[in-house]
User: What shape does this take?
Amino acid sequence: MLKFNFFVKVNTYSSEFQFDFMQYFLKPGLVLLFTISMVNCSFAQKEFPLYKNQIPNSKKSIDQEFAETRDSILRISKISRPTLTAYLANKSNGSAVIICPGGGYWIEAAGHEGADVAKKFNESGITAFVLKYRIPDTATMINKEIGPLQDAQRAIQLVRERAVEFKINPNAIGIMGFSAGGHLASTAGTHFNKNYIKNAKNINLRPDFMILIYPVISFTDSIGHIGSREKLIGKNPSQDKIIEYSNELHVSSNTPPTYLVQAKDDFVNVKNSILFADALKANQVPYKIYLYEKGGHGYGMNNKSSSVKWMDLVVAWMQEMKFNQKSD
Assistant: This one.
C-alpha cells in the first residue's frame, strides 16, 4: 500500500507525519483539511533569535536554558539566548501585542502567560509575539539589571522594523506583561526615552499601549515585590536604584495608554496597579483598571473566582482605543 511521509516545521522543532494515502484517497475532504492544518502549523507561528549577531551586554557562557512543566505550568529558567515567537493572526486587524510572561525574574511561565494568550489574541485578529527575555544573571550578563529591558526594547524595535512583513500597523504595537513581566512591560513603557540597545535607524522604542496583568510595578519597600526586586537589582539596592525601577514614579503625559488587571487579594500588593493608575490619571493618560475581588496571583487568562474574562475586556478596550485600525 502506498504511503507518503510529510515533514512540517512547528516552531523550531521538526516532526514527521506518515499516513496511508489509499485510506485518505477516497476522502479528499480529509486530505484537504490535513493539508490546511499542516500549512497553518508551519506558518502560524515562528520562533527566531531576538538579535541577529552578538547579544548585547552578554558574557561568554554555556547555554543552560531549561524547560519543565510542573503543576500544568510551563516554566523556562536560565534563559540567556532571548527569542521572539510570532503568532500571526489569519485575518489581522493591524494591531500587535508583545507578551512578557511572568516568573519573578527567576523563570518565565511561557505557556499560560505566553503562548496561550497569544493564540487567544489571534482569535480576535490581533497578531501576538511572545518574548523569551533573558533572566537576570551576573554569570551571563555584564549588567544584569538592564538585560530584560534591552530585550523588550529590541522586541519593539524588531516588530516595528518588520511591520509590513507581519501585516501590522507600526503605530499599533503594544506590550503586555504578567507579574514580573508586568514590571518589564511597564519599564519599557516608562523608560523609552533612553536607548538601552543600538538604534541606528532611530526606531521608536515607545510601545503604543500597555496591558499589565497582576503586575509588579513598584520596587519600593512598602508595596514592592521584594523577590523580583532582589533578582533584578540585588539584595541591597540604593534608594536611587529603587526609585529608578519603581515605574509608578516615572509616569508622564507621554506614557502609553494602559489597561490594568489585578485581584484585591493578590500577594503582589494591589497598590502596584492602583498607584500606577493614579499616576496615569494625574498625567491625563487614558487608562482602565479592572480589579477582581478575589483570584490571588498567577491565574493567567482564567480567574476561577469570577465569570468575568479580562481578555474580553482588554480586546474591547483595544477596539475602543482604535488600536485595531490598520494603517493606510
User: Anything to note?
Assistant: The longest strand covers residues 3-10. Confidence is low (pLDDT under 50) at residues 1-43. The longest helix spans residues 28-43. The chain has two domains: 1-43, 47-320.
